[in-house]
Amino acid sequence: MKCPTNGVRSASVHEAMRDPPKDSGRDYTGLTFSMAYPQAINLVAMRTVAQSLHDITMCDLHSGDLSLAHQDLLALVGMAHLHAESWTIVDQMIRSVMAGLAVDAVWMALRAPGWTDGQLAELQDKLASLSFFKEMEQAIRAERAVGLDWYCALKTNRNATAFGILNRGHSMADLPEKALGWLWETLWADGDLWFYCQYQQRFIDLTHELAVSNSYRQIAADFDEFQTDIERAFSGVRRYKYLWSAMHYPNMRRVLETLAKNETSRQLAIAAIAIERCKVRHGKLPSELKELQPEFVSVLPVDLYVGRPLLYRPKVDGEFTLYSVGVNFRDDGGGTNDVVWPKPIWPANSTK
Question: pTM of the prediction?
Answer without folding.
Answer: 0.87
